[in-house]
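Obj.: predict assembly geometry.
Materials: sequence records (below).
Method: joint structure prediction, all chains together.
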Amino acid sequence: MLSVDNIELFYGQVHAVKGVSLTVNAGEIVTLIGANGAGKSSTLKAISGVHPTKAGSITFRGEPLQSLPAHAIVGRGISHCPEGRRIFYELTVRENLLMGGFLLSGTTALERLETVMELFPRLRERLTQLGGTLSGGEQQMLAIGRALMSNPALLMLDEPSLGLAPLVVEKIFQRVVELNQGGLTVLLVEQNAHIALGISHRAYVLETGRVILSGQSADLALDERVQKAYLGG
Amino acid sequence: MFLQHLLNGVTIGSSYALIALGYTLVYGVLKLINFAHGEIYMIGAYLGFILISLIPTLPPSLQGNVVLLLLCVMLLAALLCALYGYYLERICYKPLRNAPRLSPLISALGASLFLQNFVMITMGARDKIFPQLLKSATITLGGVSFTWLQVAIIASSLLLMAGLSLFINHTKFGTAIRAVSSDPYMAGLLGINVDSVISLTFMAGSFLAACAGVMIGVYYGTINFTLGYLGGIKAFTAAVLGGIGSVGGAMVGGLLLGIIEALGAGYFSSEYKDVYAFFILIGVLILKPSGLLGRKSHERA
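Observations (raw structure tokens):
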């Protein structure tokens, strides 16, 4: 479904992604794990078009993505839920969600809103509240719900567990698994390698901008190097 | 007397409010003070003047309803000014989107000087006198004298502000403007074309400023190419007073500034009429920089 081939990405002089290649097949949960600054988020930014790549290619359902601006890539079926949730604090929950369906027509957006509220009933209760008044966990649900409004084929989630209580994290990942069982393909970036490897089918381990290991998540979880570096073993 | 000053203040204040909205909207999406906005207001007044001058050349059958004609003039001038706003952003600000913050500010000052001189060269440096189309009688009611023109100005301004509020708060593109003001990066990730939203914001602000320009031109009867300088600074003061970035704040700030000016001119000295705005600007910046309705800006990590 998604194929990233040898991409290079720079922040000014800083070489953040050094020839990363990965594939995501339809129906999978694929996770990128690695320490801070390994290039995980940068890889997602390259895919969603918010940061340009210097080299390499990205294709989604057989079509190249790099020539498109970020706001057009959403329309192709990729939704990027970035690190830090980035809720619109001054907009209501409903408005936040509707902005997620910005490219949809009015009636389709309202239908989608209904679907998303069924997934996250808490959001229905908070519909008229301002986004900034939600708790951290609710904000993360809102961020994911908003990303789902465009009815994507591929959802890219960046650090959904950041700053949340373990119970809330568990709940959110359970929802991600359910969404995946419903047919959604997920590309997950996560520092919490335990959970990430637990729910994903395949994983890539990134270190200083390169893929150093990849394989089935179950196998990687048993790998000595992964255990030492990321699972506290 | 108090009511008289109040009414005069509201008349002028409602146009400050219309101009102030342009500052506040653009500040919201770009975090930039568009110092060329006053010139857009001035150009609106000139376009109004040109269009009104064309009225006598219309066939007599179309000249019947002066009020309707003036409304058409205002609408047409506003639409043309929206184009000015669009190209102003395209030429002077868009190429500097990722430049240091000082660069667009200098570009704004340059655009302001250019537009002023452009109007001076094409329209002449002398004052332009608006043809007297409305023979507006003065009405006295309970000791307050006013003209229908004043009533029309206040009513149109309030309608325009209500329209803008509806647009910003209850339409998809208005919500997109607020989303871009809140977090342009995220707005882009959701499929919102941030550049289009910025253009739209400039066009809306310029539309309102031009309406104010036409109304003020007709109200005072004379305009000059330097009109945008003082008008711009006063409206900027109004926007800061209300809280820059806040739509409601710009409206309240504009009306309040007009009223303070009129009361100051009435009770203290009309010579110092223009100085009150600057007292307020300095006072607000020292005492409450976030303005009356402004929020404390929270930076994102």
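Conclusions so far: The mean pLDDT of chain A is 92.
To do: check interface contacts against the pulldown list.
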